[in-house]
Amino acid sequence: MKDLGHWARFGARVLFAAVSLAVGVVNILVEKDVLPLSDGRQLAFVIVLASIALIDNVRHAVRRFFEPQKEQAQIRVQKPIIGVLLALAQTKNLQVKHLGSSIFVLRRTGLLRRRKLVRVIRFRLANHPQATQVEWGKGKGAVGTCWETGRAEYRYRRPVAEKYGARNLTDAEFAELQKKKGVTSGFSRTEFMSMVCKYAEILAVPIRSPEGELKGVVSIDLSIEAPGHARYLGDSKVERLVVEGAVHLLRDDLDRL
How far is CA 230 from its chain centroid? Predict the structure, then answer.
């Protein structure tokens, strides 16, 4: 919260400085008879445009300043997760290309500043399956349920993928499917159809601060392309391995992503 207050004050100072500078520029234009003093609407319009341009320039400058820090943070965050994937591939005799991981952090977004999970890192060696656009809410899928309960959540999705992955469900069919426990997992029809045939297993583990506050979620997934029907990610050893990897995520780095 301290950081939020700091950046709010910084943003207010930038806004005040931009408007002040814009007003100063307009005053000079009036003095030089470039703008008529009598046209109040035109003066106000020019001040607004000048303020927007100045704020936009400041925003780009700030972004350029923080980009190197963000890149370094991404590298540091990915290291323990890559280590987890390699260890899983070795201990479970899996091809690492079939494993993937995503890191989600809790952010306040939108006008109402509601908290939601935002994916900041996605890592897998293969370029498929591609990421699915999901509005992650509490109780939605393994990731959303992990957020809701604050505990690790495992889902074995291969039977669902094999049964429904090749079908294009109508709205009515999907509505009936929603009545079956543990099938649609809180996803919308569009979300469900876009991801049902992608993953055989998902394990989601909470990311906590040293004080125990939930900061986000780490998910490990196994592609549906992995052979066999074993539950590779569903035992306690795998959960401990992922939890230990999550412990090594630097919280300051997560805030920079």
Answer: 29
pTM score above 0.85: no
CA distances from 224 to 147, 171, 177 (A): 24, 25, 21
pLDDT tens, residue by residue, 170-217? 999 999 999 998 899 999 999 999 889 899 999 999 998 888 889 999
Q: Which amino acid is at 80?
A: P
Q: Which CATH class is domain 71-256?
A: alpha beta
Q: How far, in Å, are 36, 82, 91, 246, 253 from residue 249 at the CA level?
A: 58, 12, 22, 5, 8
Q: What is the pLDDT of residue 56?
A: 55
Q: How far apart are CA 48 and CA 19, in angstroms?
A: 8
Please compute, for residue 188, the number of CA atoms within 13 A of its CA located in the half-sphere on the CB side. Answer: 8
- The pLDDT tens digits for 243-254 are 887 776 656 667
DSSP per position, 3-27: HHHHHHHHHHHHHHHHHHHHHHHHH
Per-residue model confidence as pLDDT tens digits over 115-126: 889 998 888 887
Sheet holding 199-208, edge to edge: 114-123, 99-109, 214-223, 199-208, 153-156
Q: How far apart are CA 138 and CA 114, in angstroms?
A: 12
Query: How far apart (Å, rounded) are the C-alpha atoms in residues 111 and 127?
Result: 34
Per-residue pLDDT of 14-49, as tens digits, reads 454 555 544 454 454 445 444 454 555 554 554 555
Alpha-carbon distance of 31 to 10, in angstroms, equals 32
- Domain borders along the chain are 2-62, 71-256
